[in-house]
């Protein structure tokens, strides 16, 4: 598809606009099938996006996409159609809004619930500067569960500024949306009496200073244009929430039928076969059979965390709180005070939201909550906002917390066995998929590492997790080949506590560490600190101090600090 | 006051109960005046607490105190009256609920908004175990702004469990409560028509599955007993929110007149004279006069952060969002995208709530937001939940972020000057009060340290911040005295970026680092990592991997890792 200017779009007839929607869908499906990405959320908002571009004047007007995983049609319509086939590829278009990519992207998003706060900040700045443009937050009903939305609502009147919130209601987070706000939205959609009362008296939204306007069919481009025109007028007098219904996956039968499964389409460059999430689901379901204190808690992504089976088998002991990571952490801590054994499963990047709850609620109370951290390390094509490369750095310094990193899925299963009787806070971090099983022993004992390979030179490589161990063994192999001797390779399966006995035993060796995490504050830094007052050298291979953009996982790992060639070259200088 | 058993209390007449309230007030005022602590919040809930102990059966029934700064009467009434004079002293009673202290404290709190999530977790566990007791969350209207409350509300129906929420409405956070939820509560209190409608149709709370009951005078013990008895019955059928009005500071004229100033009474062992917050207020007000892009954002503690003057002088550029630290961070980032220069002032401990916003909204977008981190380091008598000892550890690994740590208030003022034209994300962390001015130069240049004292031996001490520099110079003095030569002392005023040129220059020295932060992931760890592949020794003096309980600041600093004697003893081994 060629680039279309705003002027060209605004000159189109309804028929041409409907046609355009069809072409957008085709282009989105084509690129996502090729490069992976968010399919069903983007298909759902095609008509809405066309209508927005028809009625508003971007980039003068500003639109913030909550989460940002529904911005594809917007990208195509804002002078990026010709680049769209590069979506999610390194150096190509990001799958999320990026200020650095286009002036049409005014605010970067990635995690749920920030759009209304961001819209308020932009609108407040506009007012202070005496400028005149519209600010729009486009947010799904899943994000609507997040506490940040409420915090923003709560300060809307106080800030005395006008914004438009478009509530894109498709009944789904990644999992189906849960909670009372969802119920309320359903009532507004389905209950005539509710709407009648609503029109007579202030509802929840009016309390927060928003004029409520809904419900409209967001997949009808003509209706959307007509409503948005009216809303644009209303915005001169105050803030408006426009409630539209869209069909997630609209126009592509596979997606319409199973929007959860097609929320994210994996790119063809994904590595590994068996997903760690499958092992979590199977093992936890098995453990729960003999331990009725085990409960599972997720934040709106039960399926992708592997827990559908558990949720089906133990509905009473399964809680999906919606996109509420703070609440999830506190809820787990509280259940643990009563003798329960909660497993909080979450993607590494979203765990950032639970930080305060992990520090205070879980760890300062020293409660036996197990945090299962999925998609840890470089996660690839989703880019900056989704890389799981910070978790070791934001967990290692929390007292009472034990941190385990499995070398493969078998060891992960063994760690889950271990966790069932472990009496304190425990975090287990793992990438999406396992590409190799290493064998060896899986006898998990707290703070004990495994010697994966004995060495015959003065170097020991401490590898933290599957990806690191793969690189360590590969490096060792190269060195064996060229030098005739090889470093020892150690599976450092606990980042906290460290295996102090083994570290003492290594006092004659030069140490090399490898990890799929930031260098600052990670595993290698802990080793460097441990040996800091001795004359030992520790060389840390971990990620440079930069945000990691979207791209192929292996390529990104190599460029940001884990290149085997560099590891080999360094070790050769020691031998 | 002697310990009173629940049985004794339940046998008292109304007159005796009123009498008891008087004695509780006297004891609370006495201990707080002696040991410091939260005065007005505790005085406000005396009658409510007595009524709760009269009607409910603790510890079988569970009560969670939101924030926890209003639990003094509860502590006195739960077999701790005889220990109450030890309040907030090391080894004595904590000023917050502590499970380790008493079975009457079922859940530790410290940060706002966790109580409803915690109550839900405990109630859900109770239901799963088939037990039978009541679970109560006591929460103030200030905490009610926090997004966590909404997240918990949103999952209340879904969890199918019954809890009692007591909304203790005194119109105050630490600052007066702001926001639309506050307006709604005011309407419920003051507007007869509102209450009339409320009783006829579902309001906000009913939407979330709560029966609303209010408004009652929480300072009337007889009325409270009568209402709580009725509510206890209702709890058999569902969850209830009981809205009570109390007077913050009730019974003590000084507090009633100025509850913000008497929210926290400083303990007599506080160190330092001029508060950093005063400097922030003065300097920022001055800078804002010539820079109309400067805005100040706080989360419900404008006064204690020193910003009252700024807020008065520049109301349009001042935003107190209420206890919404996540929202504050996003709002700042968004304003910065529009050319504004936001200063987000916050206590170190509460900044934990903004973590995800700092990583993604502020730093991944590389926006010029300045985070002014007050009460950094050991903060003393408030204990585990309020020590500001984690911030360096959770900030150092965030790309794009510059971190500055002033040696004293003059240098802090100079850093604020520097910040006004700095174009990226910047964090400045400082303790509450400055006890000493060091002189020297205050020419702030990014990543440049200051040599505070040239040495004449092979040791260099890198000190990060006022408290560290004080200890470094003291240690150096002791060594000079006993060894006749002294280490160099360096004011490491930037933790990020480090002064790499100076670090290169120190390659002949043994390095000692001192910081008022956790050892893991802090300043010393960065230095250890920097030198890790050389044969240099780095000895890190920082806090051990434990939560730091309440007590005197200097004593805690000494016991947890910054004892000058230990520093001196170590350095002597090097000379």
Number of strands of chain A: 19
Structural class of chain A: alpha/beta
Using the 3D structure, state the CATH architecture of the largest domain in chain A.
Answer: 3-Layer(aba) Sandwich
| Rg over CA atoms of chain A | 25 Å
What's this model, at a glance?
Chain A has 575 residues and is α/β, with parallel strands linked by helices. Chain A has 24 helices and 19 strands. Chain A is globular.
What features would you describe in this structure?
2 copies of one chain form a homodimer. In chain A, β18, α22 and β19 form a beta-alpha-beta unit. Chain A folds into 3 domains: 6-257, Thiamin diphosphate (ThDP)-binding fold, Pyr/PP domains (Rossmann fold, 3-Layer(aba) Sandwich); 274-434, Thiamin diphosphate (ThDP)-binding fold, Pyr/PP domains (Rossmann fold), CATH 3.40.50.970; 450-574, Rossmann fold. Chain A is of the alpha/beta class and 575 residues long. The longest helix of chain A has 22 residues, at 14-35. The first copy, chain A, has a 7-stranded mixed sheet with strand order 8-7-9-10-12-11-17, sandwiched between helices.
